[in-house]
Amino acid sequence: MQSVREISRARSTGLFGGAFWAAVAGAGALGIAGCTHFLGDHGAPGAATTENLGPQDAGTPPRVRLLTAQQYANVIADVFGADIKPGTPIPPLRRTDGLLASTSASVGVTAGQVMQLQRSASAIATQVVDNGNLENQLPAHRDYLVPCKPKADHAPDDACAAKFIRSTGRLLFRRPLSGPKVDEFVGRAHRAAEELKDFYAGLSSVLEGMLVDPMVLMIVDKTEPDPAHPGRRRLDAFSLASRLSFFLWNSAPDDAVLKSAESAEINTPAGRARVVNMMLASPRLENGIRAFFDDMFGFDDFDNLSKDATIYPKVSGTTLKDAREQTLRTVVDHLITRDRDYRDLFTTRDTFISPALAAVYQVPAVPGWVPYEFPPDSPRSGILSQVSFLAVHSHPARSSPTVRGKALRELLLCQKVPSPPPNVDFSILEDPKANFHTARERLTAHRSNPVCAGCHRITDPIGLALENFDGGGQYRLTERGVDIDANGSLDGKDFKDPVGLAQAVHDHPGLPVCLVKRMYSYGAGGPLTDADNPELAYLNQRFAASGYRVPDLLRAIALSTAFSEVAETPAAPAPAPRTASLPASQAVAQ
Amino acid sequence: MKSLSNRAYGMALCAVLATTGLGSTRLVNADETTSQLRDRSIGYVTTDLHWSVYQTPNLSVDCPDGLNGNGPRETFKALFPQGGPVETTQLAREGLKVFPQDKQAQFPYILAKGPVAIGLNLDGKVGPNDFVSPTGETGINNQFFRVIGCNAQFRSPDGQLQLFANKLIRSFGFDRIMIEITQVDSLVNADNVEVTIYRGRDPLLLDATGEKVAPGGSQRVDMHYGKQLIQHMHGRIANGVLTTDPIEGVWPWAIYFDVPTVLHIHDMRLNLKLSSTSADGLIAGYTDVDSYYHWLTSWSTHHLAYGRLDPSEFYWALRQNADAYPDKDGAMTAISSAITVNMTQVFIEHTDANPAEPVQRTADAAH
After folding, report:
1. Range(s) of the domain holding residue A302
2. What is the pTM of this model?
């Protein structure tokens, strides 16, 4: 076995180095440009369908997307096993049009990130071929991740290397490697094994190179002429397999999905339907659902969330971690396991609970996660009253009706609340003689400033209905000794408490429409434009007809013509987002 | 970026509120005294135990003669200034620790002399040796305070036993003792309540600081090794204070890992100030001297040396001040005592008591 230094030297002597970095940098530039080029031309016969798959002239632009951090982790876990530690080489994305995922087609890869990716690749490759450690009870990964035994550990074995490269490369690149590509990798493994006098070190070097290959790190939409629609183009079978897989599983296609692409079955309506149904029935669907809702709900905010321990002593780091998990468990259970109406997610009392959360909810618990149902007279109704939403949309030391109202409108109703003006006058609130007790009193005073009133009227009547929950998500009836008035309103519907708000959100026509928009955008890999409106109208109709069942929506998106077809014309610039507003006649709830 | 814009949106407003003090909130339950009651019951788990010692800042009242100075090192040096064979010097003294002799102490032992002690009136009388409580109650029986009051081991804040014996309450599952009060209509007044002592199975729920135990945690009852520790008491709550009738009690309190020591306390009773989040007060009774001594000597001699507590000398002091439960020869075997206890509200789960019962009870959750 060679030393780390020797292996590093071999890798830096030009076996893989320069070309790979150049390729990654090039792909980074490609990503920055938000590429819409037609990258391939691998025809496969299609078949006509009589099923309504949405507007036939709809399509999406082909994109080059950088894997998200979670996608990268899922790919490594699915290909090599969960005990291979990938590190976190991909930084968080910024949010575009309500989703982090929508940014993945317009990010660049800096030189520093390439270094991080290379470090992770090296660590992963080393783990994959390691020989285990009996004393530390670590398995020899090479025994089951390398599908053959070399003739000798200290020398090249091209046949065995080819077997590993072909099988692993197919999963990482999400399509079979061509013969010349396999030969190229085998040649590199041969030279490295020879130089390092270690067959596995040679494999490791090749694997490290694969893991920093732009075609592995980026989801590249390759297109081909669509025989079913002469003159138009569609995603090729493997790009469609990847788009489906990252949409439904947040990970790369598995062997079965790749086989359907290899046989071109995925290009036929019946075959694609079979594949999609198989994917929807897979346990991996939970990963996909979690990833989507974690993104849509803005739960990345949990990564930087902390609460004032003196004010919220029960809200520890464990509590916040569990709060995120609670809502995601609720989502998966409600939408997938029980196949319930999406809108009911905002009124359901069924959830799961852990000991740390139980202390906040003031109920008993046993160790671990257990199903839990809030009683009928509980103010906890739906996920808006769970600790996750309440805590993440509050300040470290107090609640915020404004932030909560803004989050609800933007995240769940796809509305845009304008940012505050730069020079807000806080003189009323700063007046030491003012003796405000509750958030309602403070915000009422604040809204006397007409510059502030416009936006606060949009957000505050929603958030004030959640004031029975403090900034840590704990139930309360008073603030600073004064009873809390939880009256509120949402777009013309009045309510008197959090349960009323939950019902109003449930009944809001924008709720399912927003989910459709976000989910289609998520699947298509980028922000939508007006050109997508016909497709959205179709999906909204399908979603409503299904009784707002999310698996049906996923299926409708995955099978729609637009999902696999290339947009006819270049995408128009994104329209200005709709801004939430109240009817002029509507009074502000106090 | 949504997350930043969300926060930024309210940031300007909240920053001003925070600086003006208007942003702080206070959690107030619907009914501070009953909000944790479930099915007319409430549970508490032990978080702190200290032998009750009434201290004055300069020892003037409780220990006018100062603190004890004859620990193992001092007595050994006095007895064997020239050293000697191990078996007749070190081993002999160590043997006395394990098998103490009920005979006159060889060195002066300083007893607490002040009139004030923490404790309860166990016998309902006011006698010449009784103390007055810090709040003025007469007839306080706590002769144990007389023995330990002037020993640095037991004094706050840094007495070795005060510090480390208490530390194990939170970290050692053996000491996870809980009480469940049932038939409670109010934490202020309830004429007839039942109190059951259990051992819990689960780690304590720490708060966000990591330093304190948070109320609202859950504990499963240990029905395996802990079954023999289950004890029942009858009591009452008056003005927010729980008092129980005396029982022949045991209280597990291990002060050294892997040494499962249990205190035997005659006429054991509880006197606890209750709230929805805590129960604080006393465990009082006549502690069996030998069980106590076994408890104490589960610590090594070098630990006892830090407090200048020579075990065999200490044993003599204990026997001299024991004041109850005479043996057939008339020698007292138990000593009146009090332990200051702090408990935090916890939900007690009887999952092992009745396996047929659903894991999670939901109907009793208020919110």
Report:
1. 290-507
2. 0.82
